[in-house]
Specification:
The chain has 370 residues and is mainly α. The chain has 18 helices and two strands. It has helices spanning 3-26, 37-48, 59-70, 75-100, 105-117, 119-124, 131-146, 150-163, 170-180, 184-206, 215-223, 240-244, 246-256, 258-273, 283-290, 292-304, 313-332, 344-369; strands at 226-227, 230-231. The protein has a two-stranded antiparallel ribbon. It is globular and about 65 Å long.
């Protein structure tokens, strides 16, 4: 494939991906509000008013507060526009990562096409939630890492955490991975950027610009009051003592109800990556939700066969870290259909790379058998 042909196809995908997101956001009539939108807006307004409140990590509330400051009446429009830009930018950055690791052009285009039009991502562009910005930041941080911009990569990694806490482990994993490979300098530089992000957000807490997050404690209680799709977000059965001592309550529950806790964790994992169970099952449900299950299985196989596929092992490992981090954290807490969204592009890449490996394996076996 010539370079001109590749670019034409790539830019066509981007333009069509942009147009479909503009339609979904502005002309479909679908709501911009998701399950946590109101809480994020309350936090942002409190920051603007100088009386910050504690709940979620402060990355997205600060972004909302900034748009409120710039345009108080139009901040929702600014956020959904930013969602569109962030998603398209994430697609571009993912293509650059694949290019740096010399993935074949046809395979790159297939991956980019699927990510650009993946129904759950397209649908998420309309929501005033953290997913679109989180996706951009984590892809940016990994791209910076591949370019050797380790402090910037670590800093972007910490910013990602302030939007999507379930990605917190990505950069500790990367630092450990570098230390394991005896790349001490890059590990230290990455850690310095990550630490810089931590110090900046701590300084914002110390100066009263934002309040310290507290959603972790709430999520710990919800985790032991969740059974698959039945999640007691209101914590109606929690006692006053449990509400005041959530971490202690969480570990007491593990000790006192180990079988029940194990079942809850299995159901949490099922919520995240397993096929959904709906009585009104249809193709829309499959495209939005259930397709994640076969893709996830293929991604797991890609990780397991990373030494045999013929791709650089570093690429497979780096792309696996967001999936592993998100899966581990939600396994021990709660999971909903929304929570795996940021990891899905990485699952898609890994799944397609593994399928491509199988195709090559099949072709080579036919050559030798023929």
């Amino acid at each position: 494939m010539s370079n001109i042909t590749y670019k034409k196809i790539f830019y066509t995908i981007l333009i069509l991906a942009l147009l479909i997101r503009v339609y979904i956001v502005f002309f479909s009539g679908l709501s911009w509000y998701g399950p946590d939108t109101e809480n994020y807006i309350k936090m942002a307004k409190a920051i603007v008013d100088g009386n910050p409140i504690s709940f979620f990590p402060n990355g997205f509330p600060l972004l909302l507060a900034g748009t409120m400051f710039l345009s108080p009446g139009n901040f929702p429009v600014l956020i959904v526009l930013l969602n569109i830009v962030m998603q398209i930018a994430a697609v571009i950055l993912m293509e650059k990562i694949l290019s740096r690791y010399n993935i074949e052009e046809k395979t790159r285009l297939l991956i980019i096409f699927i990510i650009a039009f993946y129904p759950n991502l397209v649908n998420n562009a309309r929501l005033i939630l953290t997913e679109s910005t989180s996706l951009f930041l984590i892809v940016l941080s990994l791209l910076l890492y591949t370019y050797g911009r380790y402090p910037a990569s670590g800093f972007a990694g910490y910013l990602t955490y302030t939007f999507r806490p379930s990605l917190f482990l990505v950069f500790p994993f990367i630092i450990i991975y570098d230390l394991f490979r005896r790349k001490k300098i890059s590990a230290l530089k990455t850690a310095s950027g990550f630490l810089a992000g931590l110090l900046i957000f701590l300084s914002l807490e110390w100066t009263g610009v934002v309040a310290s997050p507290s959603s972790y404690e709430y999520n710990a209680l919800v985790a032991i009051n969740a059974y698959g799709y039945k999640i007691d977000f209101q914590l109606e059965n929690a006692s006053e003592y449990e509400l005041k001592h959530p971490v202690e309550t969480y570990f007491n529950f593990i000790a006192e109800h180990p079988v029940e806790y194990t079942l809850q964790r299995f159901l949490s994992l099922w919520n995240l990556w397993g096929p959904t169970i709906y009585f009104g099952y249809n193709i829309t449900s499959f495209m939005l939700y259930d397709i994640r299950f076969p893709l996830f299985i293929l991604a797991v196989l890609a990780f397991l066969f990373r030494n045999k596929m013929g791709y650089e092992k570093e690429l497979i490992i780096l792309l696996s870290f967001p999936v592993i981090s998100l899966t581990l954290i939600h396994f021990f807490f709660l999971s909903t259909l929304r929570h795996r969204t940021v990891a899905e592009p990485f699952v898609i890449v890994l799944a397609i790379l593994f399928l491509n490996y199988l195709v090559k394996l099949y072709k080579s076996s036919k050559i030798f058998s023929g």
